[in-house]
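Protocol step 4 of 6: structure prediction from sequence.
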Amino acid sequence: MNQDIRWQQRFRNYDQAFLRLREAVEKPYLNELERNGLIQRFEFTLELAWKTLKDFLEEKGFAFKPSPKDTIRLAQQSTYILCAQELIDGLEIRNMLSYDYSGEKFENAEPRLRQDVFPALKQLHSFFLKELQSSPTQNDDASKH
């Protein structure tokens, strides 16, 4: 049996990124440096989220165009997740923030990031933890959460 399942390997990175993002999101007030850190953690976590989902779906035998939005939509159509729109909104926020040099767009997007996108990333994180725990190649890392 192959012990190195790709989505599980990538989940380890997503897990770490998610925990760092959670740490930043839990701070109610951020100075400019902390805000920049939150944006960086958000972008990194979102990227790992959809790529872990892509690897998971491929492991399940799905063949599809591996773009972020298509991956997320397929995961919801296949009833693995229920938060596709929030994750897609997160992709749009990420793209918008990539060109935000004044910080103005972040201030407008911050409530959505905290109230909609972060809970969707949390839901996805929980989904992967459950999948990892029920997997025949269960990793001891799953018991740490």
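Step 5 (inspection) to follow. The two ends are 25 Å apart (CA to CA).
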